[in-house]
Design brief:
- A hairpin with a 3-residue loop joins strand 9 and strand 10.
- It is elongated, with a radius of gyration of 31 Å.
- The protein folds into 2 domains: 51 residues; 116 residues, Immunoglobulin-like.
- By secondary structure, the chain is of the alpha+beta class.
- The longest helix has 31 residues.
- The relative contact order is 0.18.
- The protein has 1 helix and 10 strands.
- Strands 1, 2, 3, 4, 5, 6, 7, 8, 9 and 10 form a 10-stranded mixed β-sheet that branches.
C-alpha cells in the first residue's frame, strides 16, 4: 500500500481540523460575550432610551404643569426677562401666580398682564416670546452665565423650584430680552 496515508498524517490532519473547530468555538464564545456585555442597552431603563435636553434652559414639573427651557434673558441696564414654555397636560386650567427670584433678588418683578398669567388646560403657553406674555425683572444685575434660584408658583399645580441660567440676548436668545 504505497498510497495509503501514514498514521502520522491522519493525526496531523485531525489536529488541524480540531484546531479550526476550536478557533471557531472561541469566536462564537467571544461574540456571545460581546452581546452579553452590550446588553446594557436593553430594557425600559437603558441608558440608550433616556433622552436629555439639548438647550441651556432649566426644566421642571409639578402636577400636570411642565416648565421647559426656562432662562432669564438680560436686557439693557439692570433688567431681564423670563423666557419659558409651560405645558399644561392636565384637563384643568391653571394660573402662574408668582415668579420669585433669589440670589440676587430683583427690586421688582412685573408681568405684562398686570398680574397672574393664565395657563389653559391641555395647551402650551409661551412666556417671553414676541407678542406673548412677559415677566420682567428690574433692578436685576447678575453676570451672564450665572445661575439664579427661581420659584414658579401655580394656583393648582403648586411650586416648581429651578436653578435658571442668565443669558445675554444673543444667538438663539436675540430679541427675547425685555422690551421697553
Amino acid at each position: 500500500m504505497p498510497n495509503a496515508p501514514s498514521p502520522h498524517a491522519l493525526t496531523a490532519q485531525r489536529a488541524h481540523t480540531l484546531g479550526r473547530r476550536a478557533r471557531g468555538g472561541t469566536l462564537v464564545a467571544a461574540a456571545a460575550a460581546a452581546a452579553l456585555v452590550a446588553g446594557c442597552g436593553a430594557g425600559f431603563d437603558a441608558g440608550t432610551t433616556v433622552q436629555k435636553t439639548v438647550s441651556a434652559g432649566a426644566y421642571g414639573a409639578a402636577d400636570g404643569i411642565a416648565a421647559q427651557n426656562v432662562v432669564l434673558v438680560r436686557g439693557e441696564g439692570e433688567t431681564a426677562s423670563l423666557v419659558a414654555t409651560f405645558v399644561n397636560s392636565s384637563p384643568v386650567d391653571d394660573v402662574l401666580t408668582a415668579v420669585i427670584v433669589d440670589n440676587p433678588r430683583p427690586s421688582a418683578i412685573t408681568s405684562t398682564t398686570g398680574g397672574a398669567i393664565p395657563i389653559p388646560a391641555r395647551t402650551t403657553t409661551k412666556v417671553g416670546f414676541d407678542g406673548g406674555e412677559q415677566v420682567l425683572l428690574e433692578g436685576f444685575n447678575p453676570p451672564a452665565s450665572a445661575f439664579v434660584s427661581v420659584l414658579l408658583s401655580f394656583e393648582i399645580a403648586g411650586d416648581i423650584p429651578l436653578d435658571v441660567l442668565v443669558v445675554p440676548p444673543t444667538g438663539s436668545f436675540a430679541g427675547l430680552g425685555p422690551t421697553p
